[in-house]
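Deliverable D4.2, example record:
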Amino acid sequence: MPSTIRTFIALELPPAVISLLAKVQEYLKSKRLRAKWVRPENIHLTLKFLGNIDPGDTDKIGGAMMDAVDDAAVFQLVAEGLGVFPGIKRPRVIWVGLRGQIQLLFALQRALEENLAALGFKKDKRPFKGHLTLGRFKQTVDPNTIRQIIGEYENLYSEAFTARRIILFKSDLKPTGAVYSQLQQAVLE
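Output generated by the structure prediction step:
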């Protein structure tokens, strides 16, 4: 067994949303944007990237997840529009945004962050920005091209989907891309 495992906590997306995001990726690829594209089945909403952890800590993390969902109810989200990080002049990541019951998403993420901090995991320095990563650019992209594409997708909306559980995933990095496996889950009620 490895001494550490690479992990993160996320919400899974329903098949209809993944299908929509795959179509957006295909269009972006047709525009010859050179990026490392996230495999559609791997697109998720990251709540907390933990990095390399001791495999023995998964039960403690599962407990922190259960405590975080204790006061949380299921909530609705919609995938909406395109954006880039860190900015239009030097984009590194292209993503789809979210709308809906965002305040409940942020409350869940804050509770999770606090519970994990109590276990010794460092809090993120950057504020949480819920998004769905489509790809990471390998080289500089013309800002005008990005502006045009973002404009073309300003009316992109998925069907509403319900966040029902958070999952601790193990991420195995392979030459063909990351392979995710579920380690723990906590169900919202």
